[in-house]
Amino acid sequence: MSAATPAGVKTELRQLEQYRDRWSSYDEQSGLVDLSERLTAEKLREFELFADYDDKFLEKIASDVSLASWKPGSVLFEQGAYIDLAFCVVEGEVEVFLEGVGDGGTEARPIFDLSRTMIGEMPPEAATGATVLMRRAARPRPSEITFLSTMDFDLPRGAAVRLGPGELFGEIGAMSGWPQSVTARTVSACRLLQIRLPALRLMKRKSKALKERIDELYRERSLTAQLRGTPLFSGLGEPLIGALKESVELVSCDPEEVLVREGEAADALYLVRSGFIKLMQTFGEGEIAVSYLSKGMTLGEAELLIDEIEGWRTTAVSVEFAELVKLPRDVFDRLLASQPKLAEQLWRSAAERIKEAGATRRDVARADFLQVALESGLVQGNSILAIDLDRCTRCDDCVRACAATHGGHGGRARFVREGSRVGNLLVAKSCYHCRDPVCLVGCPTGAIHRSGEDDVVAVDEQICIGCSACANNCPYDAIVMHDSGETWPPDMVPIGLRGKARQVASKCDLCHETGHGPACVSNCPQACAYRVGSVEEMQRLLGGGG
Amino acid sequence: MAKKRGGRKGTFGDLGLPVAGAYPSTATRRALVGLGLLAVLVLGAVLAWDHFAGGQGLISGGTLSSSHAVFTDDCGRCHDPGLRQVTDDRCATCHEKFGDDLGIYTFARHYVYRSDDFRRVVPQEHEVECAACHPEHRGRDTDIADVSDVACRACHFDSFGNDHPEFDFAAEQEPDNQALRFPHVHHVREVMKRQQLEDPERACLLCHNARQDGRGFEPLDFDRHCDACHLTATTASPGLPVLDGEAGGVGVETLESLAESGGPGLRWVYFSNPGEFRRRGSLVVKTPIHHRDPWLLENLRRLRRRLYPDAGLADLLRASADAPAGEIRALYHEAVATLEEQALGLRGRPEPEIQQELERIRSLVKIVQRRIDEPFESLDETGFMLAFEQRDPRLGDEETAAIDALVSDLTEACRGCHEVSNATIVRVDRDQRELRRAEFDHRAHIVQRRCLDCHDAIPVRDYLGSEEKPAAELDNSGIHNLPRVGSCQECHDPRQASDRCVTCHLFHPDKGSRAELLPYFEEAP
Amino acid sequence: MANGVSGPMPRRWGMPVLFLLAMAAAAAGFVANAYFSEIRAGNVWSLTYGSAAAALLVLAVTYGARRRMMRLASRFRAGGAAGWLGLHIWGGALFLLLMLMHSGFRLPSGVITGWLWALSWWTVLSGIGGRMLQRWIPRMLSSGLTTEVLYERIPDLVEEIRGRAARLAAGSHEAIATLYRDLEPEFAAPRRRWLFFVDITAGRERRGREFRHLRRLLGGEDREQLDRLEGFYRTKLEIDAHYTLQQTLRLWLYLHVPGSLLLVALLAAHLYSVWAY
User: Fold this and answer.
1) Using the 8-state DSSP alphabet, how is residue A271 labeled?
2) A458 located within any domain
3) Residues A198 and A283 in one domain
4) Are B59 and C35 in contact (CB < 8 Å)?
């Protein structure tokens, strides 16, 4: 590109290149017939989805939107896959279904092929179609988590739903960073609008309409399943669920937002969709954390059931962003009246909650630990590197192993054996692989992504442009920017980076591409490095360690 | 969207110390390996120096014993390449230089030590290599002949205390050689009376003279031990009929007739005193009679040859009394030597009967030699004795009876002590040695034990005070008056005296007795 | 699975039990041996024990190699380092036993064999000593200290603390500045103190008295600054404790590793001499 090129053309070229960059990872073998060139604002506005936005905004997101033609029978994504984009049907029909149905011979490889995340241990079934179910079963998840928000579609096993023009799908998984609950396959030849996560986020923020639409979609597609998936409502009949669906409110919380306050009148039952809710009680002059709620748990059953309890027993504060379903008191009362069995379940749940709170109040250390866990984000972690300092000989073999695994000799370790101490455990500054990874937010290229179906958050160094947004976003210092030793080439887009030293975000990826477990754990000679998946496990470790 | 928590970005600890951006050092501890490798290099250099500058002392498994110390820098002298022990062949290059006859250092020697029983040689696959029992590289002062018990136990019984078999003489059911009639009690009593001895054991020592090295006793000797009482100057033979040269018949040859015949081995005739013969008509009386009286023996031989014309070999028994201690093999050797000496005396004599005799001697030498060379043939007296089974069939009964009567008369003086059968004085085993495979040092034991404490098979002490004679089965020369192995075990056990195998089974004679071997070395090529 | 969430592991007895059994078997073999055949250079027993010992030694040394080739170890699924350490420790102990059996519990008289014997003892004993340090020091470090530092970064951190303390002292009450001047040599560089082996919080209380004394005299902002200075001082002491103890954890390897490499080299020479002669 010469310096004489007019600024406008330059921008346009840059945008074109950016677009190609972002969409070029689709390979030929998938059922993709054709991928559009970068769409202009006018073109975009032709689609209903983008009708409400102004030109400037559309230009901004255009690089993250594409129009693609697919062969009939192509698998767009598989159940359990993490994807970073949503689809909107323009032409043709797409079928979404739960695995387990005999699927009629997929000719093309899915574009989000799970097999690429699995190197060593592909079971023989992987080649057929049952892969996902197989691997889901292989690693049991902590039972208390129900993946409500993964239920994009309310489908019984084996059933399929066909989506026609104008329908949006995949967005809930993409937005919340959860794996897809269904497999999507084109039925006829299709034209699909594909919107990458950054664009989707911007759109949602910009347009109330879209937010409403997405909420609406959520209400339509997953709320039923979610409600039924809640132990509380699992026994309800179809009509009741339907009635519930209409009367609930969807609530979003900002970080540290107080949802209810201790002592205030209890007016509703809350059901946590995503995020964490910290439950606090006054203790002496301050407050202590007595418990916390994660996905699928309910708040308020004790208060609503027991007349003696006047107001909220606990203050509920969202830890990070949280999404909840609110069931107003009158709806709850009606429900209870019609379902005497429900009361029993709720009583049990309430009793447990009160017992737990009592236990925590008696055991201040536990309260302390809960507080620390909530504050330091340990509750977020799917895989926290904890080192038992009682046994650690400070040999740094974990770090060496990490460096060796990532880049061989002279490689760069992806964590430091420093961090906060919880009892005898050192929580190293290594990625927690959060349930709700805030680092994914704001990545302009989507280089940082959820990889595979194992909650691994990884950085694709090929795409990373070193903007350090993720490193700044990470509350736990787990992402480090470092010089790759290269400089950006002179034809680099964005232009601002040309000739500059290339920075790359580096973080723990649980060694997921190597086919073996985290090297830091397996290379610890004292067996004192652990990957901890939940607060309960960590508590056990603490107890065990003294 | 994301919010920073309490400004703690990039810090740790109470002070908010900065977190390491990248890990400071992932390449440490090179020095560890470096030091080790340096040490290895030094070691390599030392080894190389050791190898090229001559000696190979460094890789040696240890100091060699004094005997082999001269080979310290010459590993190849004994070792072949490969994971093998030193082979017997390598040992044999020095130790069997002098032939199998010596056999001192061979495995066969180990197994058949002093038993001379070649039938007992174990099959090849069960043979043990020298090095198996004689480890080297155990330090300069180690005695490699000092075989550890474990090595013996590899083939033999477990422990001396529990499993040592009974001594051969005790295990054998046959009575001992009764060639000599010797009532111990009577002799001890007589000797004590004559020499006025207080202690009966002094009487023992009068005849049983310990050898210089304390192991075993000097052979009994008539001249030293019996002469004082037996065959005195007045001992006379009965009147013996003199053989009439023309008439034939049965009788003894006189000195004169013997001198005339001039046969082999009769040189003694010229040194004999004719005054010892008294002629009484056709009878002759010999007085006094000597021990091993040549005239008597020669006449006995002649009578024997008449009775058993084929028993030429039995003549050799004449030499048997001079055979060295218990060595039947040596007896054979001596027989050969005797025969050859006879042949030497006859050489150059043209008379046909002499030539015939010479021929006979030569064939005998051949037969005997073959028996010596054949290791799996038992060497005993039966070979000689076979010839006595058949008397000359041409002899008439009358003649036979006459000969028997003459033999009886001739050996009258001998039969006081000796057994005579087949016109032969039965050979006396003067050596009395019974423990053939072990060495017993009396000197080490006499300090703590009296003779009769152990040698109690003949109840000498019980009869000393009285004039009573013990029954023949209690006191005769057939009794092994030796302690059994249990008697040894009383003291030799792990908590008391040494019970090691080599305590008794010393396979290599001590250096003092090496002198005996010298003749073999002189004969060596 | 790619994402192995590992919970707290129960103490694994498999390895020690296995090796104790092996030791018992070896000892039984040795006792039986005393009856059947003496263990002697070159005989079958000696060769068996010797080659088993050599194999164990090589196995034990492989642990060192595995630590230096982690990538390969992970790639070829060579097992966790903890298991290897178990093998290393128990295998090493068993090696010594077999070595002694190989030599028939006699002092070898050869030069190389003598060195082998001595170095085997040295290496195994230093290893056992090191293992004891490894179990003892971490407990000391985690029991009394709140800070966790990387050994290699100690000089930097000490410098950082000294800088902060100096800046604090420069802009604060005269009494605090004076106290800092007293303390300055202690802030200057990482310090080893043997006392830390006995008392991990060595020195904290003694100095604490000075701080407490001064605190009574100061008020308001000055007191706050004094507290911060005390914080610096305490952290410095903790870092010194880390420095002393972590250094020990690193230095004992110098007793163990070079000797063991030499041991392997000697073993090679020994094998060569056995093969060639």
Assistant:
1) E
2) yes
3) no
4) no
